[in-house]
Amino acid sequence: MQHKSYTIEEVSQIVNAKGFISSADAIIRNISFDSRKLVDVASTLFFALKGRRDGHDFISEVYEAGVRNFVISSEASIPKRSRDANFLLVADTTIALQDLTAAHRQQFNYPVIGITGSNGKTIVKEWLYQLLAPEKNIVRSPKSYNSQIGVPLSVWSMTEEHTLAIFEAGVSKRGEMIALERIIKPTVGILTNIGEAHNEGFGSRAEKIEEKLELFKDVDLFIYSPKYLEGYNKPIPGKQQFTWAWNAPADLKITDEEVLEDKYLFLRGYFHEKDVQCVVPFIDAASVENAICCWATMLALGYLSVDADKRLEKLQPVKMRLELKNGINNCSIIDDSYSADISSLAIALDFLKQQNQHIRRTVILSDILEAGVDSEDLYEQIAQLLTSKGVERLIGVGREISQYADKFKQDTAFFDSTNALLCHLDDLKLFNETILLKGARSFEFERVSKMLTHKVHETVLEINLNALENNLNYYKSQLKSGVKLMVMVKAFSYGSGSFEIANLLQFNKVDYLAVAYADEGVTLRKAGITLPIMVMNPDVLGFDVMVEHRLEPEIYSFRVLRDFVNVLKLKGVDNYPVHIKLDTGMHRLGFMFSDISALVEELSNCPYLKVISAFSHLVASEDAASDDFTRKQLADFSEMTGQLEQALQYSFIKHIANTSGISRHSEAQMDMVRLGIGLYGFDSSHKDKKPLLETVTVLKTSISQIKELKAGDSVGYNRKGILPRDGKIATVKIGYADGYSRKLGNGNGKMLVNGQQVPTIGNICMDMCMLDITGISASEGDEVIVFNEVVRVEDIARQLETIPYEVLTGISERVKRIYYYE
Ligand SMILES: *Cc1c(COP(=O)(O)O)cnc(C)c1O
User: Fold this and answer.
1) Which candidate in 314, 450, 569, 717 is catalytic?
2) Which of 62, 464, 679, 748 has minimal CB crowding within 10 Å?
C-alpha cells in the first residue's frame, strides 16, 4: 500500500514552479507543512504556507531535520548551505498545495463522497465509514480534517488500493468552497444540514447555502433534505437528486417513529412507494437526523433496505476526542479507544510524542481493521511510524498484529484478544510511563482504559487543548515580528494543569515559561520541560535546587541579589541568567528608579550572573481610564532599562505586557510579552470579538440524588432554602471544598442540567450542593455543567465580586483534570 510517488520534476510541472532543482530524481510520497510533524523525511515535500506563522521561517529547521524538498514563495528564504535541496518557487504556496492534491485526486476513478453542512459532517462521515466498510476499502478524512489545509491532507491519502473515498469539507466564509471542490471533486454529495453555526462569515442564510452547494456543482448524485434548502431559489446541483423528509414528499419519506427501550428509535417510511423501516441506536434529535442522512445515502447508493436496517442498528457512537488522564502506577493515559486506522494513529502518536512527563512511551494497539489492504504492508508502515515517533514499547492486541510481531523494533508483547490482555495486565509492569490506547471499536478498549485509569471523582475540569492552542495562536498572530513569547504557567497554569499545559506550550515552541515558585519549576523540569523557566518568587532556601534545575530567578531586591550571588559563588557558577524586576508603579516587588545606580554598581562587578532580561508589570493594562498611567509606566521602564543597558554594556530582553497589554497596547510589546489568562480564553478587551478566543475549561459534575419535595420544605444547613411550591431538587457532587464558593448558594449560582439553567437552593455544603430542578427532566447520574461558555466564569466572578483569575485558580486540586484533543 505504498503511496503513489511523484518525481520532483512532476511536482514542479503540476504546481507550475520556477525550480531550483539540484537532484531531479528526488521522489515525493509525503507532504507536510508542520515542522513538528515530520515522518519519512527523505520523501517529504515541505510547503512553506503563510498561515498564522509563516512557514518560510521554519525552512532551516526542517532542512536540519533532513527534508530536502520545499515549495516556497520567497527566494530569500532559501538557507545558505542547502545546495543539496530542491526548492520550487511559486507565487502562492497554498495554491500549489491545492494544485498538487487536486492532480493527485485525478489519478483515481473510484467514487468520492463529499460531505458538507453546518453540523454532523464528521459523524455522518464516520458512520458511512462504519456502514459501507464491509464491501469497500475506504479512505476518509482523518478526524474532522475539513479545512483549507485539512482537505488537501485528506485527499493526499488516496491510493490505488482504495475503492471509495469519503471526505468532509467545511468553510467559514465566502469563496472557500470552490477551492475545496477543486481538490475533492466529489461524485456523490451529501448535505448534512444548514444550521445557525458559523454564520459570521456569510451575509445571509441563502448566501451560506449557495456557498456550501458549490461543493456539489459537478456531482452525479446529490443527497439532501429539502427543508435545508427552504428559501433557496436557485437550481439544485447534481445530475440526479435523492431527497429525504419527515412527512413530506421525498424519495425517502419518513412517517413514524417510536422509542424502544429508552435507547433505540424505530423509524418507518416509504421509499419509492415501498414500506421501509429501520432501527437506530440513538434517540437524541441530532443523532437521529445524522442517522437518517446515512440511511438515505445507503438507499440512494442502491443498498437493499433490509441490509441498511441491519447495519444501522449497529452504529457506534463517534468519539473523535483523545483524552489525557492520570493512570495507575504514576502513568499518564492517552485514551483514543474508539478507532484504529493509520491516519488517526499518526495523529495520536504526535500527541503522545508531545508528552514528556515520563521517559517511556508505550502504545497498546489493536488490529487495524482496514478492509482490502495488504496487511503485511500495513503493519510494516505502522512499525515505521512507531519508530519514527519514539515509541519504546508496543503491546499488540489481536491475531493479525500478533502475526507481524517481527516487524516491530521496540519491546513488544502480543495478546490474541482484549480479554487476554486484561488477564495479563499486571505482568506488563506498566509503571511511570505514558500509554497510548488505540483500538478498533470491536476490541472494546474502554475496558482497558477503565483498568488503567483512576476512577474519576465525578467532578472534573475538562481542558480543551485545541481551544488552548487556538488562543495561543491568536496571541502569536498579534505579536510584531521578532517579539518573543513567555507564557505564565504559575498557580497550576491558572488552575488548568502543570506539565500537561507546559508540554503543549513546549511543542508549540513558545520562548519562555514563568512560574511563581521554585517547586513549580522543578515539577516541570521533572516532566521533561526543557524551555527556559523564570521563577518569580525565588527563595533563598530554594536557590540550590533552582541552579540544579536551571531555573532562572526574578531578582527584585538587593537582598535577593546578594543571597543568590552567594549561592553562585559557593557553587562556582558564572554568568547565570537572571531577570531583573523593575517597579514602575505596582509597588509590589522590584527595584525602584532610585535604586538603579546602586544596582548597576553591584551588577557590573559581578561575574556570577548575567541579566538575561529586565521587566516590569502593568498595573491596569485592561483599563482605559488608566491608560495615562500605563503610558507613564512604559516611559519609566524605557528610561530605567536604558540606564541599565548603558551601564552594563550589553543588551537584554525587555518585557512588560501581560494579556491585556498585548491586546490593548501594541507599543508595549517590546522584546517579549508575558501571556497569562488570555490563553484560557479570558481577555476583558475581547467582549465584542469573542469568537477569536475559545473557551478552554468546562467544569462538570453529576447528580447523586433527586428528591420530590412539598411547598415549604427546607433544603440544606440552617434551613436557608425553602421550596416556594411543590417541586424537585437535585443534589450534585460539588461544594465549597472543590472551589464552588459558598456565596453561590441560595439561588445566586446557576448550573446547567440537560441544557437548562437551574438555580442553587439552600447553602452550599463542603462537598455537595442542591439545585432546584422543578419542571426539568433529569435523572440521577446525569451530567451537570458548573461553568462553560453558557454559564460563564466571568458571570460567576462578577457575582462573587472577584475576577476570573480567582475563580479558575480556586478550583481545588481534588477536582480531576481531563485534557482532550480533537
Ligand atoms: C501573572 C502575571 C502575568 C500574566 O498576566 P495576565 O493578565 O494573566 O496575562 C504577567 N506578568 C506577571 C509578572 C505576572 O505575575
Assistant:
1) 717
2) 748
Q: Which atom from ligand 1 is nearest to the alpha carbon of 621? A: 7
Phi (first) and psi of residue 755, to 5 degrees: 85, -5
Q: Which three cell numbers stand for residue 344?
A: 488517526
Let me know whether 369 and 482 are in one domain: no
- Provide the CATH number for the domain around residue 743: 2.40.37.10
Q: Is 488 in the pocket of ligand 1 (CB under 6 A)?
A: yes
**The last residue of a domain, from among 81, 100, 119:** 100
- Does residue 350 share a domain with residue 414? yes
Helical (H) or strand (E) element with 290: helix 285-300
The rounded Å distance from CA 490 to ligand 1 centre is 9
pTM: 0.80
Contacts of 586 (CB under 8 A, 6+ apart): 616, 617, 619
- CATH number for the domain that contains residue 78: 3.40.1390.10
For the Cβ of 3 lying below 6 angstroms from any atom of ligand 1, the answer is: no
Q: Does ligand 1 have an atom closer than 6 angstroms to the CB of 185?
A: no
Q: Ligand 1, closest atom to CA 662?
A: 9
608 Cα: distance to centroid of ligand 1 (angstroms): 28
Is-catalytic flag, 717? yes
Q: DSSP string of 384-444?
A: HHHHHTT--EEEEESHHHHHTGGG--SEEEEESSHHHHHHTGGGG---SEEEEEE--GGG-
Domain span holding position 585: 465-691
Same domain, 654 and 748: no
Within a domain: 591: yes
Report whether residue 136 contacts ligand 1, using a CB cutoff of 6 Å: no
User: For the chain, what is the domain count?
Assistant: 5
Clarify whether 490 is annotated catalytic. yes
Residues 6+ apart with CB under 8 A from 691: 200
- Give yes or no: residues 648 and 737 share one domain: no
Final residue before a domain boundary, out of 691, 708, 739: 691
- CA dist., res. 195 & res. 191, Å (int): 11
307-365 pLDDT, tens digit each:
999 999 999 888 778 889 888 899 999 998 777 777 788 889 988 988 888 989 999 99
Whether 142 lines ligand 1, by a CB cut-off of 6 Å, is no
Query: Ligand 1 atom 10: the closest Cα is on which residue?
Result: 658
> How far does residue 504's CA lie from ligand 1's centre (Å)?
19
CB 600 within 8 A of CB 640: no
**pLDDT band of 401, cuts 50, 70, 90:** very high
| d(CA 565, ligand 1 centre) in Å | 26
Q: Is residue 317 part of a domain?
A: no
Dist. CA 149 → ligand 1 center (Å) = 34
| Ranges 178-192, 360-374, 426-440, 805-819: which has the least confidence | 360-374
Residue 78 and residue 208 share a domain: no
Q: Is residue 460 part of a domain?
A: no
Whole-number Å distance between alpha carbons of 343 and 129? 14
For ligand 1, what atom is nearest to the CA of residue 674? 10
CA distance 580 to 593: 13
203-230: per-residue pLDDT in tens?
Answer: 788 888 999 999 999 999 999 999 999 8
Tell me: do 749 and 620 sit in the same domain.
Answer: no
CATH of the domain at 411: 3.90.190.20
Specify the pLDDT at position 172.
82
Mutate to test the pocket of ligand 1, among 658, 670, 808, 809 (most ligand atoms within 8 A of CB): 658
- Return mean pLDDT, the chain: 92
User: Dihedral (C-alpha) 44, 48, 50, 53: value to the nearest 10 degrees?
Assistant: 90
Same domain, 222 and 163: yes
pLDDT digits (tens, 9 = 90+) for 704-721: 999 999 999 999 999 999
Q: Please state the atom number of ligand 1 nearest to the C-alpha of residue 805.
A: 8
Sign of CA dihedral 205, 208, 214, 220: negative
pLDDT band per the 50, 70, 90 thresholds, residue 37: confident
* CA of residue 678 to ligand 1 center, whole Å: 10
* Cβ of 658 below 6 Å from ligand 1: yes
The CATH number that applies at residue 155 is 3.40.1190.10
Choice among 121, 253, 490, 700 that is catalytic = 490
Task: For residues 128 and 69, state if they share a domain.
Answer: no
* 1 located within any domain: no
What separation in Å is there between the alpha carbon of 811 and the centre of ligand 1? 19
